[in-house]
Amino acid sequence: MADRVILTIGTKKGVFVADGAKPRRRFTLRGPFGPGVPVYSTLIDTRGTPRLYASSCNPFFGMKLLRSTDMGNSFKETKSAPAFPEEDGRALANIWSLEAGRGKKDLWCGVEPASLFRSHDGGDSWELVPGISNHDHARKWQPGNGGLCMHTIIRDGNRVHLGISTGGHYLSEDGGETFRPSNQGVGAGFAPDPYPEFGQCVHKIARHDDAPGRLYMQNHGGWADWTGPGGPRPDIGVLRSDDYGHSWRSIAKGLPSDFGFPIVVHPHDADTVYVMPLEPATRSCPGGAPAVWRSESGGESWSRLARGLPKKQTYFTVLRDAMDIDRLQAPALYFGTTTGQLWIGREGGEQWDCLFDSLPPIHNVKVGVV
Amino acid sequence: MGPTPTITIHVPGTLRTYCAGAAQLSISAYTVRGALEELHRSQSALYRNVCDETGKVRRHLNVFVNSDNVRDLDGVDTRLTLGDVVTILPAVSGG
Questions:
Q1: Mutation site, B52, B56, B88, interface A, largest A CB count within 10 A
Q2: Dihedral of CA A59/A62/A67/A73: which sign?
């Protein structure tokens, strides 16, 4: 019976693991593992014996994948990490996403420059997924501020949704063999054409098993006042699809900003979705007062959740993979900040407490119940 | 061209785990490129830390022949002579 809550915290200086009993009153911290090396993605794989994974993105010596089979007491490098074939001409610059695949040992991995890799042996060997990595568009995508990264991989039966910054949303409906851009209604603010076929700066995509066809997207918003070619683009930052990502519509009305990075769905209610609106210029919460915003109506309206969070003079950023929610009956939200704080939002974000105050800058937070 | 010169590669501490703990490797090569190719053949795990998939020395690494950065010589085509010491070092970083 699952009775521990475990957090993987990817930071600028390695990965930390925190775990606590189900009441989540306190957590014990271990790490850093892969010390001194940035970690941008982690995965808590609860299929069978739990395994923890962390990308170890060494700017000097290249990319590694770390794996723990003892609940995060120790990590070892897998036998290999994703790498482009020699004749490809591209070199791996970062590992941005790790997701479980269909088979018990299947893993998917999104990287920079935006490409997809797949492993059938728990990360010991990797193969390039050509349908997206060698897509006709792949050499036309442009890097965003964080690089040209494939940060979101969502599997839904034979569908695979990918989020690429800046490539947009790509959809496969044949298990990942072929992909096509699927960005109708997804705006871009940094190009003359406000609704291009591809090239949007998608920040994160989320879905829920109980709402087939529905997806939520945090896109690069903040273009309401744009006065250049194509005119202003209000509310393009928070979107919803109800047709498996074929088309998208704005659900940003009611938010203080449509710019942000993470988007998270409640584990037991597909209508409840969380974002953290940020001012586009500073990448911090409006007025220096952090808050998570929750919709309980699939994006029709929003409410502010800030009890326990600082009320002023706080300018951290919460990055795209730095917010998650556990699957307990009364789930807790967790987010990590670029200033090294890890926060827990108990009762679905109603009450916030700082679990750890002085970690390195946090890139990634994942939670599992094991 | 005479016999292939034997040179020494000095391995930084952080990379020794990829070559069974060796601090130095003895290799025969005419050039730095040849030395890296030999690393590719005989020490593939170590090689992957030094060169990326395209075969280029990773961007934030410096390769020295004796006391000279190959950047100031002929790059990876720098010729090697008997007894040379090739040192691989991460670029200085701070902050």
A1: B52
A2: negative
Residue A328 in domain: no
A215/A315 same-domain check:
yes
How far does the CA of residue A92 sit from the closest CA of chain B (Å)?
8
Looking at the DSSP assignment, which residues form a beta bridge with residue A249?
A240
Chain B residue at shortest CA distance from A79: B45
Pair A152, A269 in one domain: yes
H/E stretch holding A345 reads: strand A342-345
Q: Distance (Å, rounded) from C-alpha A33 to C-alpha A339?
A: 19
When computed from its CA atoms, the radius of gyration of chain A, rounded to whole angstroms, is 19
The pair of three-digit structure tokens given for residue A100, joined into one six-digit string: 């479980």
Surface of B (18-37) touching A: CB under 8 A: none
CA distance B50 to chain A (A): 6
Taking the CA of residue B83 and the nearest CA in chain A, the distance in Å comes to 26
> pLDDT by residue (tens digit) across A309-319?
999 999 999 99
pLDDT value at residue A193: 86
| Domain B6-90, second-level architecture | Roll (3.10)
A60 touches chain B (CB under 8 A): yes
Q: Domain with A83 in it: what CATH number?
A: 2.130.10.10
Q: Using a CB-CB distance cutoff of 8 angstroms, which residues of chain B are in contact with residue A88?
A: 53
B52 contact residues in A (CB cutoff 8 A): 62, 91-92
CB-count burial class (<10 Å; 0-12, 13-18, 19+) for B64: buried
Q: Does B52 touch chain A (CB under 8 A)?
A: yes
Structural domain containing residue A57: 1-128+355-370
Same domain (yes/no): A284, A158: yes
d(CA A368, CA A45): 8
CB-CB: which of A59, A61, A83 is closest to B53? A83
**Would you state the pLDDT for residue B90?**
85
Distance CA B24, CA A14 (A): 28
- Count structural domains, chain A: 2
Contacts of A92 in chain B (CB under 8 A): 52-53
pLDDT 10s digits, B19-58? 999 999 999 999 999 999 999 999 999 999 999 999 999 9
Low-confidence spans in chain A with pLDDT less than 50: none
Together in a domain, A185 and A292: yes
pLDDT per position as a tens digit, A18-71: 999 999 999 999 999 999 999 999 999 999 899 999 999 999 999 999 999 999
Q: Do B90 and A92 touch (CB under 8 A)?
A: no
Q: pLDDT, tens digit, for every residue of A161-172? A: 999 998 999 999
Structure tokens belonging to residue B47 = 């090689």
Q: Tell me, what's the pLDDT at B93?
A: 57
Are A94 and A164 part of one and the same domain? no
A62 touches chain B (CB under 8 A): yes
